[in-house]
Amino acid sequence: MMKNFYISALAMLMLICAPTLLAQEDEKVKKDLSTVIALQNKPCGEVVTLQRLGENDYIVSCRSGHRYRVSVSESGRVQVTEQ
Amino acid sequence: MAVLSHAVAGDTLAIEAVPSESTPLETDSKGSKNTDPCRHEHKGHAAEIAEEEAPPAIDFEELKLRLRKTGAIGFFTKLELKGQIGDLFDELEVFHERESGLNIEQLEEHFNLLLMKLLVLLQDDDTSLHQDIVLARPTLWITLSDATSFYALIGT
Fold first, then answer.
1. A34 in helix, strand or coil?
2. B76: contact with A, CB 8 A cutoff
3. Tens digit of pLDDT for each residue in A34-77?
4. Cα angle: B127, vertex B13, B59; to 5 degrees
C-alpha cells in the first residue's frame, strides 16, 4: 500500500518538475548559443527561440531579428550561418 | 617552466606541461639568441631579478581539466574557443617558423583578447578558475612567445 503511494508521489513529482528542468536546460542552451554567435562577431543580442534540428544543430532566432543556423562542422568547428 | 595544457569540449589540443631550459632573458621575443656582449655581462643579475619576479608556479594540467569540466561555459562556446585558440597557435607557429605574418605585439593582442573572452565567461560562474587563469596568464604568454618553449609545447 505504502509502496504504491510512494510510486504515485514520485510520478507526480516528475510530472511537476520535468517541464521546469527542461526549461532550465533550454535556457542554458540559449545562453550558450548567444555566446557563440557573439564570439563569431555576428549581431544577435540574445537568442529568443530555438529549434533543434539534430545533435548540436540548431536554428535560432535572435532579439535583433536575425536568424542563424548553429552547427558543428566535420572538422569540429562551430558554424554560424545566417538564414 | 610549465605550459598550459588546453583542452575543451572533450577534445585535446595538446598543450602539455613541458620543461623548458631557456628563460625569457636568454632569447628575445622572436626566439633568437641574444648576442649582445653587454647584455651577457648583466645576465647573471638580470636572471636573479627575473627569478625574484617570476610568476608563481601553476599546475596547468589541473587548469586544463577544470576548463574542460567547468559548467560556466557551454558546449558550443567551448568548441568555439578551442577553434580560436587553435587559430592563435597557427599564427604563433607561422611567426616562430618564418618570422613573418603577424608581429609579436599583434599576437600578444590576440592572446590577450582571447583570454579576456574566456575570463568574462568564467567570472560569474567559476570565480576560482577565473582567478587561477588570471594568475597563469603571464607564464602562459612567456611560454607561447618563446620559440623553444612553444615548440616543446606543440611537440615538434
1. helix
2. yes
3. 999 999 999 999 999 999 999 999 999 999 999 999 999 999 99
4. 45
- Nearest residue, CB atoms, B80 vs list A29, A39, A56: A39
Asked if A53 reaches chain B (Cβ–Cβ under 8 Å), the answer is no
The verdict on a CB contact (< 8 Å) between A29 and B74 is: yes
- Give pLDDT tens digits for B16-58: 334 444 444 444 444 444 444 444 455 455 556 555 555 566 6
- Residue B43 and residue B23: Cα distance in Å, rounded? 11
pTM of the predicted model, to two decimals?
A: 0.68
- How far apart are alpha carbons B80 and A39 in whole angstroms? 8
Cβ separation B74–A28 shorter than 8 A: yes
Interface with chain B: mutation pick from A71, A77, A79, A81, highest number of B CBs within 10 Å? A77
- Tell me the three state secondary structure of residue A82: strand
Cα-Cα end-to-end distance for chain A: 57
